[in-house]
Design brief:
Blueprint: E1 29-30, H1 38-43, H2 54-59, E2 71-72, H3 88-101, H4 103-111, H5 120-130, E3 162-164, E4 170-172, H6 181-196, H7 221-239, H8 244-256, H9 264-280, H10 283-288, H11 294-312, H12 320-335, H13 340-355, H14 371-393, H15 395-398, H16 420-423, E5 424-425, E6 428-429, H17 441-465, H18 470-490, H19 521-543, H20 547-550, H21 557-573
Parallel strand pairs: 1-2
Antiparallel strand pairs: 3-4, 5-6
Main location: nucleus
Subcellular location: Nucleus
Pfam families: Fungal_trans
């Protein structure tokens, strides 16, 4: 006697299958189309997977042999499609038409009620019945044996697909596997990837070319000078790949000399600087300069920078200007929802930089150098340092990195002044003490933080390849945490990442000894807050693989408290 479709005790009654007479009108949702015929599937017999099959012919019911009509799970989210099968040719034509019409078709679907579509009502009801919300079992896998679970146990919490058989019983998918510590780590990685906008499922914003502001001519000389001055004071320390006095002099030179056309690489750098400047500029500041709609200006210059970067042919032409432009454009890629472009640009920039020898720049020349040569050497070190920092960020998304620090001999950037009169001393760079704030201060500290996370990733990867347990991984995490503590202790007092509630930003003990922008407390406050957030994010990153495990295993409670304390402080700082 055929089952009525009701489940055993403990399972929501809303998940019951419809009666047998209605199943043809309510196709079930499944991961793949069945190959066995419906009578063999119902009787749980091995099927020859032909229509009619051998069993049905032997039983004399060859006329009843057919495959069940189902709705594939990959097609279930788009409920505007019917369940009638389409040929491959029809599917290709429909896909082409969908891409051709684009937004107009999607707008029409949004405006049309779901009930007006043919066959929509039946598919929607079936999908709702079979994928209705169910309570998730939050019990830790360590508290029970997953292999001994009853067939009616909720397995959504195991991260595996769920299959419903014809008798109304809930069975696990063949892809179901044991849940171990690796799942917790991957879940944390996926969550962070979603936050940073690099995951495939992230809703990215795609701006068309027509949305960008159509720039009439270019910025006036006064406007350009004000924007570049704003970039030098408030933005340049975030990337530190430019010697701003030299770049501003080049901009002025191209304006004064008629019919002087810069190369595509320099033009890309120019547009990238303007795009990042307007992205960080307050709208009121832009309006005072006679440039309303700063966000549209940033989008316009970003589009121009990408077009110029293609013209510069970074893949075939070695250009320092193009490398600098890539480093500056990375925040804009995030801001404009173009995150997928970041990995490609960084990969191209890393290879180009190594071809140009930036990974083996000497600390100083054997002979005295001119001021321009000293500046060029420092810019090369800064660009390579920026690429190393950005490459370490991709460990979260790629679970690997492209730059091996063991193969590089380029020293970190020097903590030097940007003024040409003081940047060179006897043919070499004049380095300032660590308590002097310069444009390179933030980048130097960021490189130290990235080296800590890179070393932890190497250690954990070696342990995983050797088959070591989670406690060995936890020991490496604690070592990285100790390295973060030493990093915080070695910082200058004015740059301390430790929250000091009793101190104000104008207290003498948190002001640098000297250096550029020392008389601009708002810049120092931005540097300090940004470095503090970076430090706390790095602490979350090294502990996140053990955070989920710490919820059930108190031996990893330190990772739990470290992540929560860092998250609270980030929210407070932000």
């Amino acid at each position: 006697m055929e089952a009525t479709g009701s489940y055993t005790a403990g399972v929501d009654s809303t998940l019951s299958l419809p009666p047998a007479g209605m199943r043809s009108h309510h196709p079930r949702v499944t991961q793949r189309a069945p190959l066995s015929c419906y009578p063999c599937s119902k009787r749980k017999r091995r099927c020859s997977r032909t229509v009619p099959c051998t069993n049905c012919v032997n039983r004399g019911i060859s006329d009843q042999c057919h495959r069940e009509t189902v709705v594939l799970a990959k097609n279930r989210p788009s409920l505007d499609q019917t369940a009638r099968p389409r040929s491959a040719k029809t599917a290709r034509v429909a896909t082409t038409a969908h891409r051709t019409h684009g937004d107009s078709d999607r707008a029409h679907v949004r405006e049309s009620p779901a009930s007006h579509l043919p066959g929509q009502h039946h598919i929607t009801d079936s999908a709702r019945e079979q994928v209705a919300a169910r309570p998730v079992n939050v019990e830790s896998p360590s508290h029970g044996d997953l292999g001994n679970q009853d067939s009616t146990t909720d397995v959504y919490s195991q991260g595996s697909p769920v299959a419903f058989n014809h008798d109304g019983n809930l069975g696990s998918s063949p892809r179901q596997r044991d849940v171990d510590s690796h799942l917790s780590g991957e879940a944390a990685n996926t969550l962070e990837a979603l936050v940073w906008g690099s995951h495939k499922a992230t809703a990215e914003v795609h701006y068309g070319r027509g949305r960008a502001l159509n720039i009439q001519g270019s910025l006036s000389s006064a406007q350009e000078r004000e924007v570049l001055s704003f970039h030098q004071l408030h933005v340049a320390w975030t990337h530190n790949v430019l010697h701003m006095p030299s770049f501003m002099r080049e901009c002025q030179l191209y304006r004064q000399v008629e019919h002087s056309l810069p190369d595509a690489g320099w033009l890309t750098l120019y547009y990238a600087v303007l795009s990042l400047s307007f992205m960080y500029m307050h709208p009121q500041k832009a309006e005072k300069l006679g440039l309303p709609e700063a966000s549209l200006l940033s989008q316009s210059f970003y589009d121009l920078a990408i077009e110029s970067l293609h013209a510069a042919e970074l893949a075939t032409v070695n250009s320092m200007h193009a490398l600098q432009a890539v480093c500056i454009l990375l925040p804009c890629c995030h801001f404009f929802g173009d995150s997928k472009r970041i990995m490609i640009l960084l990969a191209m920039a890393n290879v180009t930089a190594q071809i140009m020898g930036l990974h083996r720049v000497q600390a100083k020349s054997e002979r005295p150098e001119s001021v321009s040569e000293v500046i060029s050497r420092e810019v090369q070190k800064r660009v390579w340092c920026c690429l190393c920092i950005q490459d370490s960020y991709l460990i979260t998304f790629k679970r690997s990195y492209s730059i091996s620090m063991a193969h590089c001999s380029t020293p970190p950037p020097s903590n030097c002044d940007e003024k040409e009169a003081s940047i060179s001393c006897n043919g070499s760079v004049a380095e300032l003490p660590a308590d002097h704030f310069t444009q390179s201060t933030f980048q130097i500290q960021q490189l130290k933080l990235s080296n800590i996370s890179r070393a932890l990733f190497d250690s954990v990867s070696s342990l995983e390849r050797a088959g070591q347990g989670i406690h060995s991984v936890f020991d490496k995490v604690l070592e990285a945490d100790d390295a973060l503590v030493r990093f915080a202790q070695e910082l200058p007092p004015w740059l301390s990442v430790v929250q000091q509630e009793t101190l104000r930003d104008d207290d003498p003990c948190i002001v640098p000894a000297a250096g550029a922008n020392a008389d601009h407390p708002e810049v120092l406050q931005s540097v300090r807050r940004t470095l503090r957030i970076s430090f706390l994010h790095k602490r979350i990153m090294i502990h996140r693989s053990l955070f989920c495990r710490s919820l059930t295993d108190k031996r990893f409670h330190y990772s739990y408290t470290s992540c929560l304390d860092a998250a609270r402080t980030i929210l407070k700082e932000y």
